[in-house]
Amino acid sequence: MSLAHLKSLIRTIPDFPKAGIRFRDVSSLLVDAAGFAEAVERMASIAPQDIDLVAGIEARGFIFAGAIAGKIDAGVLMVRKGGKLPGPAMGRDYALEYGEDRLEIHDGQIPAGSRVLLVDDLIATGGTALTSCRLIEDAGAEVAGAVFLIDLPDLGGAQRLRDSGLDTHALLTFEGE
User: Fold this and answer.
1) 21, 36, 37, 98: which has the highest count of C-beta atoms within 10 A?
2) Is 60 a catalytic residue?
């Protein structure tokens, strides 16, 4: 299956969640069994080697992280929005366009020195991904790389991660959008 075909499986929803935004809906790829399997296979193939945990960012990142972890024989770490974890958590606040948000992981779940792959469905400005990286590093692990299904290069997030020294890859790009 070609990358062009995979890209064609992603719906674009105009003016969601607000006017002027073109939302990239991966649910149309997820319901296509062959397309989803191909996307996971390709994302796993561009990931760094010797990964202990695959960290998925809430919520669509969980889907891809679990599937990739199965391919590369790694565990799954969920990076959650603040206040969603039932046990002791460690977290980091970060700035949004209008306000702040928080990301958390369970305290003590990452063995020190673990090599972690960060995964999400899409990278836009990179704020959530960078905060996730810092949170994982706060726990004593190494973020060995990041893999995304989609990059919106005009928003600069993947480049921000690369500029921070992180090995960063995306399977598909939607430029000029």
Assistant:
1) 36
2) yes
